[in-house]
Amino acid sequence: MPSPRTVTSGQELRSPRDPAELQTPARGARRASGGDAPSTHREDLRPSLGTLRRAFSRASQRAPGRAPEENRRSSRFPFRSPWRADQPQATAVPALAHGPDVPSRVEDGVSQPSSTGVGPEEPEAEAGKSVADLITERQLLAAFEQLRHLETQLVAEKASRTFEQDPTGFARRAMDVCLHYDGLAAEIGSIVRETLGPDGVDAAALAELAHVVRAEEEAHPAPPADGDFLLTPRRWRQHWEDAVRRSARERVQRAGAGAAPGVAEGSPGLAWLLAELGGLVRRDLQKVQLEVRPAYAAAGFSVWETYLRAFHGAVAQRLQELVHDARGCEDLYVLLDWAANVYGSPDFLGTPDLALPTEPLPPLLAPEVWARLESDYTSFLETKITSCFDGILQLEQSRWAASEASDVLQGRYHTPLSTDVHMLVAEHVKAAGAISADLEATTLRICARALGLFVPRFEKVFLESESVSEPHLGANINACEELRTSLLARFPGTFEELEKPLVAATCNFQKRLLQGLQRDVQPLFKVLCTKAWLTQDVLRPLMEKVVAFARHLEHVAPPWAQETLQEAHRYVVREYLVQALRPRERFRGVERLTGSQKMSLDAQAIGDTFQGLGSEATWLGQAILCVADILGETYKDDIRRHLETLIRSYPDIRRDHVLAILALRRLGRRRNQHLLQHAQDLLRAAAKAGGSGAAGGHVLFEEIEVPTSVDVLITCI
After folding, report:
1. What is the chain's Cα-based Rg?
2. What does the alpha-carbon distance between residue 377 and residue 330 come to, in Å, rounded to a whole number?
3. Would you say 135 and 76 are in contact if contact means Cβ atoms under 8 Å apart?
4. Distance between CA atoms of residues 564 and 613, nearest Å
5. So where are the chain's domains?
6. Matching CATH topology for 374-512 and 528-716?
7. In which element (H, E) is residue 248 found?
8. pLDDT tens digit sequence for 519-573
9. Sign of torsion, CA 309 312 317 320?
């Protein structure tokens, strides 16, 4: 960049042309004065004030498609200096009012002190440049020195009352100075606008800009006491900050402008736009840190903080616009995630050594906007999660329709139901947790509520389908148990309400599983306690079906497998007692003894079989044996002892059950009444002791209905 020289006195530097020749405006000839000037300082040829204002207005709007130098030459200044070039050069231009420390010359971007000597320091070709030319060539400091000299001279002439006869002339010359100051300010804005452009950073221009801003601040430290608009502080530092903000806003608004029309719609387009925006901000701020900041360093500008806040404000404004246009759950989440995790990440700028501002930045989105954004997101999320559960149900139904067998995974029946639900919950909760703890808690509640509604619906659809089988029932029991235990353990305090529907569904699946066993073995109980039973092993086919059923339970979660096996055990013992207490045929004499022995063997076989299968319901072992002992006891006084054992073991037994058991022996009226009275005393004592029927929750006789028969009535008489 050419170095400015110390200029000589006069309102305009002379050009190397003839001193008597007027400098010609850049656009057209000056208009001739309409009459004789009343003062020797009045110009003969000048544009009107309106023309000047329009010229500077056009100068501040540079055409984006033209080269910077061409724009400056063609539209920055449509005229040369408005002051005459043929005025006498009486004295050398003094240094600026702030003293000799203010730089007046820039060589390769480094300021030099102004010369106080008389006469030109530069080649003759540089001596005739006007202020407009200096501004156009971005010799800002030299242009400011000339303007400062002209301003000081004009103030002095005003103080000497030179313009008492020509106030209009003073106003025009003062306006000329102000317009050129405005031109300098416009050039500062242009430099700032071009700083982050594709042409790279002009460090010399930035250094010149910083020094001219400081020179103006020192030249105009405070407004003049008389309120004159001359010598008024131009506040170029504030103008520079405004230009930085405008530049950041323009660049942020242009981010993503080149997207294809089809790509810019929907969440993929929004994600792409935000990625472009983040990349632009990151590249620009890295350029500010590495190239722009050092250029301003000598002038002490707070470059990093200013640019960072400018881009932060521009991004906040752009994000606010995108919030209004966001549609659907995906768009809303993309905005929340980008604001919280991408832009808000400490690694956003790509390098950890970038300095942060001394004060924290304001929120990217206002708290009320953020709250509304989260609220809209959760509203869409509820619908989306419900839709996802509908999809899971449809996938399960398609598996049932295709008659797909349940897989055995790690020894258990498996269905994708549990995996799908876990993935659904984990995905949304993790995504929400990455944004905020409040959003994570809200998402958890949404998932728990949706799952609580899904489980009964899934249970109903499955049980009404034609695909109910032991493997599928076992797989669904396992899935519900996995959901109950893992979700409650992973998210304590949120899924407690989910336990009730999950346990209810599991119980219903277990009930249907037992109903299948009951359908298979129920016909086999009809031959028990008959005369054919005395000579045949009718219990074997029944127990074979029980063993086959228990093989399915090996692939069911242990707590439910054990409970189901015990229920099967209880069912077999109970149904056996039903047949024994309601016999189709009565045994007498030897048949009664044979039946007692047969019943004891059956009780042993049932107990051994279920014990081998792993049943822990040992409390069931005495029921059939006690009845068999009463039926086959030859010493009648010991029947009382067997009856006591039965009542102590099964306090849910009732008077009707005792009557039915005694009716099997036909002991006689007096003995039966004595035993019945003793049994009632035992039952009353157990009730007073706090027993409500079944000890330890065990229920056996309470579910056995014994109809009143003639034999029972005879026993009671």
Report:
1. 50
2. 8
3. yes
4. 12
5. 49-234, 252-365, 374-512, 528-716
6. yes
7. helix 236-254
8. 999 999 998 988 889 888 999 999 999 999 999 999 999 999 999 999 999 999 9
9. negative
With beta carbons less than 8 A apart as the criterion, state whether 535 and 586 touch.
no
The CATH number assigned to the domain with range 528-716 reads 1.10.357.70
- Name the β-bridge partners of 103: 113
The sign of the torsion formed by the CA atoms of 136, 142, 146, 148 equals: positive
Distance in Å from the first CA to the final CA of the chain: 132
Q: Where does residue 247 rank: exposed (0-12), middle (13-18), buried (19+ CB within 10 A)?
A: buried
User: How many residues are given for the chain?
Assistant: 717
- What is the SS3 assignment for 8? strand
Residue in 570, 597, 577, 576 with CA at minimum distance from that of residue 658? 577
Residue whose C-alpha is closest to residue 447's, from 405, 398, 497, 397: 497
- Greatest CA separation for the chain: 159
Tell me the C-alpha to C-alpha distance, in Å, between residue 611 and each of 150, 555, 575, 605.
114, 18, 18, 10
pTM for this entry: 0.68
Which phi-psi region, left, alpha or beta, contains residue 300 (left: φ > 0; alpha: ψ -120 to 50)?
left
Handedness of CA 581, 587, 589, 592 (dihedral sign): negative
Neighbours of 361 (CB within 10 A): 13
Backbone angles phi, psi at 145, to 5 degrees: -60, -40
The predicted-structure confidence for 303-329, as pLDDT tens digits, reads as follows: 999 999 999 999 999 999 898 888 788
Task: At 459, list the tokens.
Answer: 């249970």
Paired residues of 409 in beta bridges: 412
* Helices 539-553, 558-581: inter-axial angle, 10-degree rounding: 160
Q: Are the C-beta atoms of residues 545 and 520 closer than 8 Å to each other? A: yes
Q: What residues pair up with 32 in beta bridges, in sequence order?
A: 45
Angle at 414 between CA 413 and CA 416, to 5 degrees: 165
Give residue-wise pLDDT tens across range 473-523.
Answer: 999 999 999 999 999 888 888 888 889 999 999 999 999 999 999 999 999
Angstrom CA distances, 699 to 583, 616, 662, stand at: 22, 15, 21
Residues 6+ apart with CB under 8 A from 85: 10, 12, 13, 14, 15, 19, 21, 22, 23, 128
- Residue 316 near residue 365, CB atoms below 8 Å: yes
Torsion sign across C-alpha atoms 634, 636, 638, 641: positive
DSSP state of 292: I
- C-beta of residue 185 within 8 angstroms of C-beta of residue 236: yes
The helix or strand, by DSSP H or E, that contains position 104, with its residue range, turns out to be: strand 103-107
Contact by Cβ (8 Å): 709, 663: yes
CATH number of 374-512: 1.10.357.50
pLDDT at 428: 93
Among residues 691, 716, 690, the alpha carbon closest in space to that of 702 is found at 691
* Residue linked to tokens 């606010």: 320
Beta-carbon contacts of 222 under 8 Å, excluding residues fewer than 6 positions away, are: 233
Task: Give the H/E segment covering residue 112.
Answer: strand 110-113
In DSSP notation, 462-486 reads HHTSS---HHHHHHHHHHHHHHHHH
The SS3 assignment for 330 reads helix
Burial of 28 (0-12, 13-18, 19+ CB in 10 A): exposed
Report the alpha-carbon distance of residue 154 to residue 162 in Å, rounded.
Answer: 10
Which residues sit opposite 107 in a β-bridge? 110
The set of residues, in sequence order, having a beta carbon less than 8 Å from that of 66 and lying 6+ positions away, is 74
Burial class from Cβ neighbours inside 10 Å (0-12, 13-18, 19+) for residue 600 reads middle
CB atoms within 10 A of CB 368: 8
| Cα dist from 462 to 136, 458, 482, whole Å | 82, 6, 18
Contact between residue 668 and residue 689 where contact means Cβ atoms under 8 Å apart = no
Torsional class of 191: left (φ above 0), alpha (ψ -120 to 50), beta (otherwise): alpha
Across the strands, what pairs with 110?
A: 107
* Tokens read off for 299: 């002038």
